[in-house]
Each structure stands twice: as structure tokens, then as C-alpha cells.
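Team,

Forwarding the record for the chain on the shared tracking sheet. I've put the sequence and predicted structure together so nobody has to dig through attachments.
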Amino acid sequence: MPAIETALPLLALWALAGYLLGSVPFGLVIARALGLGDLRAIGSGNIGATNVLRTGSKPAAAATLILDSGKGAAAVLVARALAGEDAGQIAGLAAFLGHCFPVWLGFRGGKGVATFLGLLIALAWPVGLAACATWLVTAAVTRFSSLAALVAAALSPLWATLLGRPDTAALLMALALVVLWRHRENVARLRAGTEPRIGRKTGR
């Protein structure tokens, strides 16, 4: 983490702003707007882009991916510009937690992968690109979105250290642990051989 230079009450306000931004369930909103149904009753029940793709609508999934990653990036960029690096990291963490545990949905949100990658690109774009490349390669080889997310998240602190941003490594370790926790059911399905592959459409 960077040195804490912003006053703690102001950091708390940035954390609240980041959380509220991150808690907007774009996947759920888009699916309902396009008549795709309630995502929580489709596929894995997740509100993220991968589950939106299971409805069969690639445009809806792409829009969800862009908006979910964008809210993580926006939280970091705005807080950093107005208050500093410490506020940027706090706001990014809060946006990620807002996506995973949104108050509007009873704290049952998404798994945070798109938001994680978006805030990481905003924090340190070379590290973010390395994490995205890790996800893409793993997904292309295995066709498992969950496994790609786990590998990308787990390696992100290493990429941060190797690419000259060790100040973000502690944050990325914390985020990786949350990603792992949010994917615990996927891990069980991967071990059992029942995890659905990318592109598989699930009936509603």
C-alpha cells in the first residue's frame, strides 16, 4: 500500500463512494432491460458477464463486462485524481467489495473479476494488461472462465512486483483472496469435473 497521506475521514468518504459505485448491478439491470430474465435464476446465479453470456446474448455480456470493469477503473481514477494514490487504492478496493457484496441485493453480488481487472488497469496498466493476458491465455487453453479468473488473480501480485508496482501488491493479495473465496463453489465443480465451459448456454 502507498503511504497514507489523505485524512482518514476523507478516505472513508472515498471508500463509501467507491462502494456505492461498485454495487451497481449492471448485469442484472442489462438482462432485465433486454428481457433476458433474472440472472439470479439463470446458470450459476451470478450477476457478472460470464453468466450473462449463458443467456445467449453476447452484446449483453459485452456491455456487462465493460460496465463492471469500468466502475472499478472509474473509482480508482476519480479518487486518485482528486485525493491521491492512497484514496485511489481505497476507492478501488471498495468498488470491488461493492460489486461482490452489494447492499441492494442483500450482499449477494458478483465474483468481482471484471471489476478487479478494471481497477487493476487503472491502478497500474502494465500489471493490468499482464493480468488480462493471463486470463485470456488460461481461458483459451482450458475454456473455464473461473479457472482463468483464479490464475489471473493469484498471479497479479507477482506481476505487480516484477513490473515495478510493489506498492499495489498487498492490495492485490487481498483482492485475490476474495476472488478465491467468491469462486469456492467453482473450485468444487472444477475438482468434480462439472464446471461449465465458456460459451455454454444454460436454459432459463
